[in-house]
Amino acid sequence: MDSQRPSTRTLVLRGVRDALALPAWVVGLSLFAVGSLAGETGFPGGTAVLSTLLIWAGPAQVIFFAGIAAGTALPAVALAVGLSSIRLLPMAMSLLPLLREQARGTWLQILVAHYVTVTVWVEAQRNLPTLPPEQRLPYYLGFANTCIGVCAVTSYLGYSLVGALPLPLAAGLLFLTPVFFTLSLAAGARGASDWLAIGSGFALAPLSSELAGKNFDLLLTGLVGGTAAYVLQKARGGAR
Amino acid sequence: MSASGLWPYLLVIVFGFLPSEVWRVLAVFAARGFDERAEILVWVRAVATTLVAGVVAKILFSPTGALVAVPLAWRLGALAIGVAAFFLARRSVMAGVVIGEAALIGAAWWLTR
Questions:
Q1: Reported ipTM
Q2: pLDDT in tens, chain B (113 residues)
Q3: FRET pair for A176, CA 20 to 30 Å: which of A26, A50, B59, B101?
Q4: Residues 103 to 132 of A: which have CB under 8 A from any B CB?
Q5: Within 10 A of B61 (CB to CB), how many other CB atoms are there?
Q6: What is the pTM for the complete model shown?
C-alpha cells in the first residue's frame, strides 16, 4: 500500500464517498430544518442557501433566522450568532495542524477553517489521522465540499417544503443531530481523555445553562469539562 | 422589515456570516506554530469534544420545535437504544443512527396518534 500513492482524484473521491455514506445526509437533514425556519421569515429562498454556504453552522443559522423572524434588533442577532460560533474556534484550531502539511498559505488555511462545523470536525478528527499528512487535504476538501453541497440543496428544499412534514418525522429530523453526534464522538474516541470529555459535557450541560444562560452555557461547559478531562487524563497517565 | 431585493442577502452576510466566520479566521492565526501533538492542542481538543457533547445534551434536555412533543425520558431512551445498537453492530454509526431514529419516530408517532 505504501509503495503506490493514491492520486489526488482518488483521495477527493474517497472523501466524497465517506461524506455520502452518512454524514452529509445527517447534516443535510438538520439544515433542511434550518431551511424551513428561513421559510417562516419571509426572506427569499436564496438566503437559506447563502446562509448554508457562508455561515455553515446550524445553530448560528437557527439563531439568525429565528431572531429575524422574532424582530430582534440586528446587532443583538449578530452578537448571539457570534457567541454561538465561539465553539468553532477550538475545533478549527485543533483541526488545522492535521492539514498544515499541504495547506500552507493563509488563504488556503482560512478556506480549510471555513468548512469546520461540528459534523466535519468530528469526522475529520476521526479520519484524517489515519491518512499520511500529504494525502489529507484532497480527502478533506472532497468530504467537506460534499457536505456543504448536499446542505445547500436540502436547506432550499426545507425552505420550499416548510410545514409539510408530519410531527413524528419533524421530531425525528431534530433528533438526528444528537444521535449522530453522540455516535460519531463514541466512534472517534481515542482513550480515556475523550470519554471523560464526552461524559463531562453531557453531565455539565444542564448545570451550565442554569449558571450561564443560553448564550454562554456551551462555552462554560466546554472550558470546565474539557479542562477537567484534560487534567484527569494527565493525573492518571502521567507522561502518557 | 423589507424582504425584497438584495437587502436580505446583505443581512445574512453582515449579521450572520461575519460574526460567525471571525472565529474560524482567528483559529488560523491562533493555531500557528503548533503541531498536531502540541500539548495545548490536546487541551483545546478536549474542550471542543466537551462542547459537542454539550450541544447534544442541550438538544436532548431543552429541545425546540417538534421534539418537545416527545418527553425527556423517551428522548433519552431512544438515544440509549441507538448507542446500544451502535455497539451491538460492531461500532456501526449507521446502525446506531437508523435504530435510534426508528425508536424516536416510533415513540413520537405512538404519543401523537
A1: 0.85
A2: 444 689 999 999 999 999 999 999 999 999 987 877 788 888 888 888 898 888 888 888 888 778 888 999 999 999 999 999 999 999 998 999 999 999 999 999 999 88
A3: A50
A4: 106, 109-110, 113-114, 116, 118, 121-122, 125, 129
A5: 15
A6: 0.82
